[in-house]
Amino acid sequence: LGFPPLITKVFGDVTLSAEMVMWAAFADIVGSIITPPIIKKLGLKSAFLWSGGVRLVFAALTAGLLATGNITVPLLMALTALGAFVGGINYTAEKAIPAVVLQQDRAGLERFKAARQGVIEVIATFIPIAAGAIVANFGFLPAVFAFPVAGAVSMVLVALTLRMPQRTAAATSALSGVEW
């Protein structure tokens, strides 16, 4: 939420945000395509945590460089693409976790998806309002760094609390029908 105004402030061109989205979408797709072999090599939980951590580093680095004005357009595009690439890996691994944890319990999986969607709807309603209030009162920096900070907290919670079933490898291979 804080990036487009900050990009405009640093570079004087709001169209760079659209170019960032284009490169990010491409990199995200590539990242999601290569996720299955990464999960096979690292394991589902490790792939999720690793990619999430790297994604947060890219987000924080991009935010810090933008906030200080010490970034060039090519570096901005590279950091955006790299962050989206590992974001594609992270999101794909994240989507597989509930089915593995619930071990294909269809009713439990549907309840989880409904609850998740409810949380997303609440967050999607209140975060833009909160971000606007933060930007209006404190400037761009708190809004720009909110994602890396909140993401780091959530990754620590996942690392400490997520317990994968013993038969994770068999469960993850059954998810996509793709031979890993």
Report on this structure:
86% of the residues lie in helices and 0% in strands. The chain is an all-alpha fold. The protein is globular, with a radius of gyration of 18 Å. The protein starts with a helix and ends with a helix. The relative contact order is 0.16. The mean pLDDT is 83.
Short description:
The chain has 180 residues and is mainly alpha-helical. The chain contains eight helices and no strands.
The radius of gyration over CA amounts to: 18 Å
Which sheet architecture does the biggest sheet show? none
What portion of residues is helical? over 70%
Beta percentage is under 5%
Supply the helix-strand structural class.
mainly alpha
Which whole number gives the mean pLDDT?
Answer: 83
Give the number of helices: 8
The dominant shape is: globular
Which sequence of SSEs, written as H and E, runs from N to C?
HHHHHHHH
Secondary structure: number of strands = 0
Q: Show unreliable segments.
A: none
Q: List the quaternary state of the chains.
A: single chain
Distance between the termini: 37 Å
Helices and strands, with pairings:
Elements: H1 3-11, H2 15-33, H3 35-42, H4 44-68, H5 73-101, H6 106-138, H7 140-161, H8 168-176
Give the tags.
8 helices, 86% helix, mainly alpha, 180 residues
